[in-house]
Design goal:
- The structure is a single chain.
- By secondary structure, the protein is of the alpha+beta class.
- Helices cover 57% and strands 9% of the residues.
- It contains 18 helices and eight strands.
- The strands form two sheets. Strands 1, 2, 3, 4, 5 and 6 form a six-stranded antiparallel beta sheet that branches. The protein has a two-stranded antiparallel ribbon with strand order 7-8.
- A hairpin with a 7-residue loop joins strand 3 and strand 4.
- Helix 17 packs antiparallel against helix 18.
- It starts with a helix and ends with a helix.
């Protein structure tokens, strides 16, 4: 715990007290400015005290359309070199990360070079706030790297604009408030102040709808939520949705969640009615929809959560062994969709570790037989230790990167699925160890290691049930 606090204090100190990023002349980097300005007719020579290229869209090179430059900013492992395109109207033509050595990208994938990451900067005005989780999407387990890029782009674009483009007024107060709130996490307060009516309405609507559903289908008191594992899991996931939205904002996330839940529920109701001629309350489908919504990146087009949720429910009903689903439905839906589309997981449901751990322990208490959870946890810690010793990396740093919100979300809300886990205690232990080995090994080469590792472990469940 102390090591994590030291790491965060150090990182925040770097963000607050390091010199503002400035445009630097690259040594061995190429300047592919045409990527950011595909309609440009020509570019000037590299010029200025803040080295940059002027962009022209007319053949006479008289009208400047924008400026292209590279900014270098200190990050975790080394400086990040970012090419920035700035339009004449003070909006960004786009950015591209040209060079970096961030260790986190070896674990969750090189998101810095993914379209979902750099496309969100295109068209942004330098008057925007550039706040992580608000107008810049948060990337779970890479918050500091994301902040470094956002601040570097914002600071340098102000410098370039004020030096070479028509003047624009940005007060010092705005600059100080923007980064103080970003680093200190004060967005929650602002979001509540600006959107308290929406939040209160959603909370009240959820309580009313939940009460009606429980009384309509079960005819029991509200205590059922805390007695039934499925209902308590729905309660936990819904709480995590609201907690994450208070921090990251409602934009796109609410639509993503509702799309996933509605698709999963309708698919489950339809298949159940086709098979049994009856309609059952789709509690499992709601859980699947919530998990999928909390995993997917909110900027994905809406047909993605529809496809993922539908494939998840389909696998739940079709791919079965001994009358039980073989694969974790949400995991299978994500894996199957990855074969069809470029899919990005942000794990934004893991925003609040404290909430995850507290609510997660209540889920473990209800499960009672949780040998696979502890087996996975200790096996994963052991593998992380071995990895740090072999690669000569700081153990505290690796632990900080590995045991993130995504890790706890996976352990408490995905791995705990009782229907795809073995029955006997010994089988559960082996299941947890297999999942840990597969997840950690794949985690080093793909950002979807947790999901793939779980699906591999699922394959062994029928054998483990027979063996033990």
């Amino acid at each position: 715990m102390r090591n994590n606090i030291i790491i965060w204090v150090t990182l925040l100190a770097v963000i607050f007290f390091s010199n503002p990023a400035s445009a630097l002349e690259p040594s061995d980097l190429e300047f592919p400015c045409d990527i950011l300005f595909p309609e440009a007719d020509s570019f000037s020579e590299l010029q200025g005290e803040l080295p940059h290229y002027k962009v022209y869209e007319d053949k006479n090179d008289k009208e400047i359309a924008g400026i292209c430059y590279v900014v270098s900013a200190p990050a975790f492992s080394a400086n990040i070199a970012i090419m920035v395109g700035l339009n004449i109207d003070h909006t960004l033509a786009g950015i591209r990360v040209l060079q970096h050595r961030e260790a986190i990208t070896r674990m969750i994938g090189d998101f810095l070079r993914e379209p979902f990451f750099y496309n969100q900067y295109k068209g942004k005005s330098i008057n925007d706030d550039f706040r992580i989780g608000r107008d810049i999407d948060a990337v779970t387990r890479a918050t500091v790297t994301n902040q470094v890029v956002a601040r570097a782009v914002w600071d340098s674009s102000l410098q370039i604009t004020q030096a070479y483009l028509p003047t624009i007024e940005v007060s010092q107060t705005q600059e100080e408030e923007t980064y103080a709130e970003e680093a200190k996490g004060l967005d929650r307060t602002n979001f509540l102040a600006e959107n308290n009516f929406i939040i209160l309405f959603l909370l009240l609507a959820s309580i009313v709808i939940g009460t009606v559903i429980i009384f309509r289908f079960q005819r029991k008191s509200m205590k059922l939520i805390f007695k039934n594992l499925n209902y308590f899991t729905i309660f936990t996931l819904t709480a995590l949705v609201f907690i994450a939205m208070l921090s990251l904002g409602l934009e796109k996330r609410l639509t993503l969640i509702l799309t996933s839940i509605i698709t999963a529920s309708l698919a489950d109701l339809g298949i159940n009615y086709f098979k049994n001629g009856k309609i059952f309350f789709p509690s499992t489908a709601i859980i699947i929809g919530l998990i999928i919504g909390l995993l997917l990146t909110p900027t994905l087009p809406l047909y993605i959560p529809v496809i993922v949720s539908f494939l998840a429910i389909l696998s739940k009903h079709i791919i079965r062994v001994n009358n039980k689903p073989l694969f974790n439905p949400a995991g299978f839906g994500i894996m199957a969709t990855l074969l069809l589309f470029p899919l990005t997981l942000s794990w934004w449901g893991g925003t609040s570790k404290v909430s995850l751990i507290v609510l997660g322990f209540f889920i473990l208490i209800k499960l009672r037989k949780v040998q696979h959870i502890f087996a996975f946890f200790f096996a994963y810690v052991f593998l992380a230790l071995i990895y740090t010793l072999i690669t000569n990396q700081s153990f505290s740093f690796i632990m900080f990167e590995v045991f993130s919100g995504a890790f706890f979300f996976f352990v408490f809300l995905i791995l705990t699925d009782p229907k795809t886990a073995p029955i006997k205690s010994k089988a559960k232990i082996f299941y947890g160890i297999i999942a840990a080995i597969a997840a950690f090994a794949l985690f080093l080469v793909t950002p979807n290691g947790f999901i793939y590792g779980l699906l591999i472990a699922n394959i062994f469940v029928p054998f483990l049930n027979k063996r033990f």
